[in-house]
Amino acid sequence: MDKDTLQNIIENDNETEIIEYKTNLNDATKIGEYISGLGNSAILASAPCAYLIWGVEDLTKEIVGSTFSPYTAKARFTDKRGKKSNNNIPFITYIEQYLDPRVMLDWNDSIRIDGKHLVVLTINVTKINQPIKFKDVRYIRSGTSIKRLSDFPEKERRIWQCFESSKFELEYAKTGVSYDGVFALLDIDFYVQHVEDDLRKLDQIINSLIANNIIERTEDAFNITNLGAYTLAKNLNNFPHLLQRTVRITRYGGNRKIDNAVFDKSGKMGVANAFNNMVKQIMQQIPHTEVYDEGIRRDVPKFPQIAIRELLANAIVHQDFTIGGMRPMVEIYDDRVEISNPGIPLVQPLRFLDFPPRSRNDELANLLGKFHIVEARGTGIDKVVAALEEYDLPAIKILSKGLDATQVILQEKRKFKDLSITEKNESIYWDACLKYVNGGNQINNKSLRERFKLTENDGTLISKAIANAYEAKLIKPYDVRAGRKFMTYIPYWGQSVQTKYSI
């Protein structure tokens, strides 16, 4: 890790389940436990690395420097009786001999910030296939504490499943399929029309399908992968184990789940060749409002199609295939739409808009990208936030539902004064994010009045809302030296004037 990357982490990230700040911790046993706990938490979060950083206060994140030196230190550790002991074994050697499996550890003790010495340990978990043990015990982060993994059986189960998830896309949905069978089972016409390759001959089509991991050639037949069947199946009844993974669309006749379902349908085709039809079905079920434009009455859907489209695509591509009994779902009520998928977010929900895109299903994401269903640039959430603002709707809600699901909620239009403080805070935060990532712009009282269709007389109302969002630590001043009348704000993770020009 270089200095700039470290500074970015310190400025933007508090301690999490994959980041730990220390000052002068030098107990080898404790450090080994941290490596196990942080590494296993990274596996659970589908993160490639975890970080242990010396020289930073954990609460204030003040850079204080550290005297710890992993390359010159000898192992100091606490024995079973709680007594601290020393030996002549080099510190790193001691750590590595008790880790199982061997983890890629990158120790960097050459970083100096503001003249102060820092040490960074990067724990790379991309090449291991089992939870990490230290001295035959597996650990996990619980909040910011280190606990035995055995005390959290559900997390332990999920970690083991993480080693299986990457196999799902390339496992076989059907084997020993003939040449004609491939064309009978998969919508090859859709594939040829939407993939950007120039495919005119049959052998070109077959080679393209193989290159994109949709099928695999054997000596005398073909195997169809889960990826190929899930995206392109003409009828998923031919692939029963994938049928339960299709999207379910439900329309309730009210605002409660106990209200009767007036529409309830699950897909039978691959998610790629059925995607546009799914969007149409959802939009047909979404409530409409009457709008009169120059005396002409029009029915306008309560929620913008672009937001529905992007969130549906995200739910499909980011689902966790290791979780059984769940599927992507779209639930439509009179006053809201809830879109959910198996699997917790890989990125902190509040950072969806600025973090680079990450997917737990790379092959699925790549293929749907070639069909222009998802975007590799990760701009989908930008479009959602912008569309909701254009429709004058409350901010998007992104929730983790336990360890198993992610849920996104779109709410119907309400007046600003009728929003809760939390809803106002979130609306202001997402507006600040959208402006910041599009040119580094800031929000202020005037821009927020325009965002919420308010007048100059509502300036006091907006000022109070800004104060609440600031108190909730969702936004911060762009320039703390600006006068109150000229104060502008950016997301809490943005770069202020003072940070940008600090030496």
Report on this structure:
The protein has 503 residues and is α+β, with helices and mostly antiparallel strands. Helix content is 34%, strand content 24%. Strands 15-14-18-19-21-20 form a six-stranded mixed sheet, with helices on one face. A hairpin with a 5-residue loop joins β3 and β4. α10 crosses α11, α11 packs antiparallel against α13 and α15 crosses α16.
What is the gyration radius calculated from CA atoms?
26 Å
* SS class: alpha+beta
List low-pLDDT spans.
Answer: none
Distance between the termini: 20 Å
Overall geometry: globular
Largest sheet geometry: 6 strands, mixed
What is the helix fraction of residues, given as a range?
25-40%
Mean pLDDT value:
90
Strand content: 15-25%
Largest beta sheet: what is the strand line-up?
15-14-18-19-21-20
Strand runs, count: 23
Please count the helical segments: 17
Give the arrangement of secondary structure elements.
Elements (H helix, E strand, L loop, with lengths): L2 H10 L6 E4 L5 H17 L4 E6 L19 E5 L5 E7 H7 L1 E2 L3 E10 L2 E9 L8 E2 L2 E6 L2 E4 L4 H16 L3 E6 L1 H7 L2 H7 L7 H10 L3 E3 L4 E4 H7 L7 H4 L4 E5 L8 E6 L8 H11 L2 E6 L2 E6 L3 H13 L11 E4 L3 E7 L19 H9 L9 H11 L6 E5 L3 E7 L9 H17 L7 H7 L7 H13 L3 E3 L11 E3 L5 H4 L3
Parallel strand pairs: 1-2, 14-18
Antiparallel strand pairs: 2-7, 3-4, 5-8, 6-7, 8-9, 9-10, 11-13, 12-13, 14-15, 16-17, 18-19, 19-21, 20-21, 22-23
